[in-house]
From TrEMBL, chain A:
The UniProt record lists the keyword Kinase: no
Transferase as UniProt keyword: no
GO biological process: peptide transport; protein transport; transmembrane transport
The protein's name in its UniProt record: Peptide/nickel transport system permease protein
ABC transmembrane type-1 domain location: 93-282
Automatic annotation (TrEMBL), chain B:
Source organism superkingdom: Bacteria
SUPFAM superfamilies attached to this UniProt entry: MetI-like
Membrane topology field: Multi-pass membrane protein
N-terminal signal peptide: none
PANTHER family: INNER MEMBRANE ABC TRANSPORTER (PTHR30465), OLIGOPEPTIDE TRANSPORT SYSTEM PERMEASE PROTEIN OPPB (PTHR30465:SF74)
Keywords on record: Cell membrane, Membrane, Transmembrane, Transmembrane helix, Transport
Protein family membership: Belongs to the binding-protein-dependent transport system permease family.
A Pfam family the protein falls into: BPD_transp_1
Biological process terms in GO annotation: transmembrane transport
Name used for this protein in its record: Peptide/nickel transport system permease protein
TrEMBL record, chain C:
GO (cellular component) term, any one: plasma membrane
Parts forming coiled coils: none
Name of the protein in its database record: Peptide/nickel transport system ATP-binding protein/oligopeptide transport system ATP-binding protein
Biological process (GO), any one: peptide transport
Subcellular locations according to the entry: Cell membrane
Length: 295, 321, 328
């Protein structure tokens, strides 16, 4: 009792672009995201070359020039011990990036392994891993990081682990849900019904989806880890001095602020802009590549 | 009956989670080089006391031995510690053995809780109207301003904002607002704003997105077809539906805020749990550190349970399970 | 023919999709008489819903009414201020939507949803509205109205929800009921019950009904008169009997042939080849030409006007007479 209309007939196929190209086009229209990307790129470059262009070592205090304001000799001034703030910032960027990237890698690797295991094995492994995920989500991972610092210490490597290890749950849940949706997703079903081969399905349909979701969740993960790292310094559990870090500078500046505000302008400003840029990029990526997904 | 079973299940889950947190913390601190719970380590920690008053030292030492069951196997120590924690028998601080942990918590916990709740309340009170206005004025400068401000609030951590406030009100506009301390209303303003800013961003963005989505729903068209006027349409149909969904983000936001209080208290020199955590961890005062984490964790999970109950109460479709 | 309750004249509606514009309704004129049941039939995207919903101001923001009038009891709905239109919606014109799962507010008790329009229009006081709601629920065949009043939509089945939708639409006893695909989302048996309910209410209240449907069968069973829309234009407009006996437009012929009727198992079903177009430019030739077995050069270059080929039988086809001859 309904109109039956066959769906045949000449339909002009639209020109096909890859998902990445389309995503990039959407991304590049978002000016905030592009501006953020530029800053993030600068941040990365400085992180790589910073130690070479730094005028002073972070370890060498200029005792003759303690807490001086910004000058040509000390671009951003010096702190209470005579460290050059500009050099400190350059080194901080390096360590901040090392720790954030390292921690994100640690979270990601653990998350991928456990997520794959849960999704593929199912059964009791799945139950246990997902209980673990629930457990990790019940409390802020910052507390776990705090406790891990006690165990591991305050070096670069320990920081990566302390921040990275508690962060696995989000990635594990994402990977598991991707695995499950791949195994019984409608799109894959449809592709298979149309006669697409396994590898074709994997590369053409699953891969872009999975990569999109993962890139987005990683993009949100890095600024989170940067924040966690500085937050640890605020409660005195951050990177061991004299190794410079934004958190240490902020915490120290908070104490010395009344006399020497320049100790704060640059670290706080650069740190805030960096986090904002990361978020703009992550947000732009999410809108461009996986409108619904993310963590 | 159904409700009671749900409640019992959730409370059991909370207890298990907290027990696991204590166990993990205890084992990690036991294994850490800075060291928890070996006689020699405690001896080092109490060295100043030993020099001052050997008799008192001996007494405290025995107390520790007994209290933490230091001669027992690790698993037994862990169980003992869990039992002590759940019976609110927290013992004494190691750094300052004459003070009970309980008394420290009694003064510190309310401060942190007030700070966290105040900032959640502020963020809801400010964020919801912001989100509603942005949604109704979509793609106008008002909307862009609200969304951009929200992004700022979300991206900049509370401690950075707190430091910036200290810079502004401690250096540039001195004597406008106090930048340290706790106790008066004006002393609470800056910490609460620092903590609320991120939440305001989250709430406003969520509210905006949710309301825009809701106003596209079929039932809004139905209400329009009934001749419902604009404002009743927005509030009775649109906002009411969006609000129920908003409740689900309050729980995670509260947890996030509690971590924020730990940071912000340290910058504004507020004697709350965050300050306690700072001194406990930096001084390797582990009983105090574990207890502080335990209490904050319990606060977060109980709040989440309450939020879930409110959600079930507000949204008729939600079934407690 | 009785006096027109709603008269739509030369209505044109466009939707702005950013990169292009969709011409959804392209010069549609028709009227609904008092007490009449009119069927508006078309495929999805034919502009059948947009035509009536735009008159009520219920289309999305990106839809713009470019020209035309829609006179309800002599007053042009399209020129009214939003306030005036709000007064008419729900009080004089009730609407039943397609999907009862999504068309009811999930966090509002169904009783309150029915009462809302009565209270908005000050049709009845609180107490009276409550009594009337119970009465309506009873009339709609919902058992235990008093208990069900306090339930939420998710506690009802699809068919029951559609009955509630109808109760909402009928609450203020409107003169016109617009039913937009009222049965599409329902099971076949429930479809019949809902149609019967609408028919019963129509006779009892002597109101007009406009049924928007893609189901030619529903229209022929239910309506006095039928309009067939295609690409936002009227293809054919006639009494139901005329439609069944003498369809004069090739598209209508196709629709009729594609109906499956009980007891016709052996009949060859002949679907219309091709898809309904989405117009991104105003039509300059016959929109159906690409799918039409009768199409000639003229059809592809010249827009056929809607003309009256016999009393009250309007067709927009250059070759209507030949179609008629062919069909017989």
């Amino acid at each position: 009792m309904a109109i039956a209309v066959s769906q045949a007939g000449p339909v002009a196929a639209p020109k096909r672009h890859s998902q990445f190209y389309l995503g990039w086009k959407r991304f590049s229209k978002n000016y905030f995201a592009v501006a953020g990307l530029v800053w993030v790129a600068i941040f990365f470059i400085v992180g790589i070359i910073g130690p070479w262009i730094a005028p002073y070592s972070y370890k060498d205090a200029d005792f003759l020039a303690m807490h001086t304001g910004p000058s040509w000799k000390h671009l951003f001034g010096t702190d209470t011990v005579g460290y050059d703030v500009f050099s400190q910032i350059l080194f901080s960027i390096r360590y901040a990036l090392e720790i954030a990237l390292g921690a994100t890698c640690v979270s990601f690797v653990i998350g991928v392994i456990l997520g794959l295991w849960a999704g593929l094995a199912g059964g009791i492994a799945d139950v246990i891993i997902m209980r673990g995920v629930d457990f990790m989500f019940a409390l802020p991972s910052f507390f776990f990081a705090l406790i891990l610092v006690v165990l591991l210490g305050k070096g670069l490597g320990p920081m990566m682990l302390a921040i990275g290890v508690p962060g696995w749950a989000g990635y594990a849940r994402l990977i598991r849900s991707l695995v499950l949706s791949m195994r019984n997703g409608e799109m894959v079903e449809a592709a298979r019904a149309l006669g697409a081969s396994q590898s074709h399905i994997a590369f053409k349909y699953m891969f872009p989806n999975v990569v999109g979701s993962m890139v987005v969740s990683l993009a949100f993960g890095i600024p989170y880890d940067l924040t966690a790292q500085a937050g640890l310094s605020i409660v005195g559990m951050g990177l061991n001095p004299p190794m410079p870090s934004f958190g240490n500078m902020l915490a120290a500046a908070g104490e010395n602020i009344l006399g020497f505000p320049w100790l704060l302008y640059f670290p706080a400003g650069i740190f805030a802009i960096t986090l904002l840029s990361f978020l703009f990029v992550a947000d732009g990526l999410q809108e461009a590549f996986s409108p619904k997904g993310g963590m | 009956m159904f409700f009671l079973r749900f409640l019992a299940k959730r409370i059991v889950a909370i207890i298990i989670t907290l027990a696991a947190v204590i166990a993990i913390s205890y084992i990690m601190m036991y294994a850490s080089p800075g060291g928890f719970m070996s006689t020699t380590q405690i001896a080092t920690a109490l060295a100043p006391l030993a020099a001052q008053d050997p008799v008192a030292y001996q007494k405290v030492m025995e107390q520790f031995q007994q209290r933490y069951g230091l001669n027992l196997p690790l698993w037994h120590q862990v169980l003992l510690y869990i039992w002590h924690s759940f019976t609110f028998n927290f013992g004494n601080s190691m750094e300052n053995p004459s003070i009970t942990i309980m008394s420290q918590l009694k003064s510190a916990l309310p401060i942190s809780v007030i700070l966290a709740f105040a900032s959640v309340v502020v963020s809801v009170v400010v964020g919801i109207p912001m989100g509603i206005i942005a949604a109704l004025k979509r793609n106008t400068w008002i909307d862009y301003t609200v969304t951009t401000l929200s992004m700022f609030g979300q991206a900049i951590p509370s401690f950075v904002l707190a430091v910036i406030f200290v810079l502004i009100f401690g250096v540039v506009w001195q004597n406008v607002l106090p930048v340290t301390g706790w106790g008066t209303f004006s002393e609470a303003i800056l910490p609460v704003i620092s903590l609320a800013a991120g939440n305001i961003g989250v709430v406003a963005r969520y509210m905006r997105g949710s309301l825009i989505e809701t106003m596209r729903q079929d039932f809004i068209r139905t209400a329009k077809s009934k001749g419902v006027k604009y404002w009743p349409l927005v509030f009775k149909h649109g906002v009411k539906n969006s609000l129920t969904a908003l409740i689900t983000v309050i729980g995670p936001q509260f947890a996030f805020t509690v971590v924020g209080t730990v940071w912000v208290e340290n910058i504004f020199a507020i004697p709350g749990l965050g300050k306690v955590i700072n001194t406990a961890f930096t001084n390797f005062d582990f009983p105090l550190a574990i207890t502080a984490v335990f209490i904050l964790g319990a606060t977060i999970m109980v709040t989440n349970l309450v939020v879930d109950l409110i959600y079930a109460w507000v949204d008729p479709r939600v079934k407690l399970q | 023919m009785a006096e027109a309750l709603l008269a739509i004249d030369d209505l044109r509606v466009q939707f702005d999709r950013g990169e292009d514009e969709v011409f959804a309704v392209n010069g549609v004129s028709f009227s609904i008489a008092e007490g009449e049941a009119l069927g508006i039939v078309g495929e999805s995207g034919s502009g059948k819903s947009v035509t009536l919903m735009s008159a009520l101001g219920l289309i999305r923001e990106n839809g713009k009414i470019k020209s035309g009038t829609a006179k309800f009891q002599g007053h042009d709905l399209l020129k009214m201020r939003p306030r005036q239109l709000e007064d008419i919606r729900g009080r004089d014109i009730g609407v039943v939507f397609q999907d009862p799962m999504t068309s009811l507010n999930p966090v509002m008790r169904i009783g309150d949803q029915i009462m809302e329009s009565m209270l908005t229009h000050q049709y009845a006081g609180r107490r009276e509205a409550f009594e009337r709601t119970l009465q309506l629920l009873h009339e709609m065949g919902i058992p235990e109205p008093k208990a069900r009043f306090r339930n939420y939509p998710h506690e009802f089945s699809g068919g029951m929800r559609q009955r509630i939708m109808i109760a909402i639409a009928l609450a203020c006893e409107p003169q016109l009921l617009i039913a937009d695909e009222p049965t599409t989302a329902l099971d076949v048996t429930v479809q019949m019950q809902i149609l019967a309910l609408l028919q019963e209410q129509r006779q009892k209240k002597r109101m007009s009904i406009a049924i928007i449907t893609h189901d030619f069968g529903v229209a022929t069973n239910f309506c006095d008169r039928i309009i067939v829309l295609y690409a936002g234009q009227i293809m054919e407009m006639a009494d139901t009997r005329q439609f069944l006996r003498q369809p004069a437009h090739p598209y209508t012929v196709g629709l009729k042939n594609s109906i499956i009727e009980i007891g016709q198992r052996d009949r060859q079903l002949s679907p219309i080849p091709g898809m309904a177009p989405t117009l991104t430019e105003p039509p300059k030739s016959c929109s159906f030409a690409s799918r039409c077995p009768f199409a000639t050069e003229r059809c592809r270059s010249e827009l056929p006007a809607l003309r009256e080929i016999s009393p009250n039988h309007h067709v927009a086809c250059h070759r209507a007479e030949e179609v008629l001859a062919h069909a017989i």
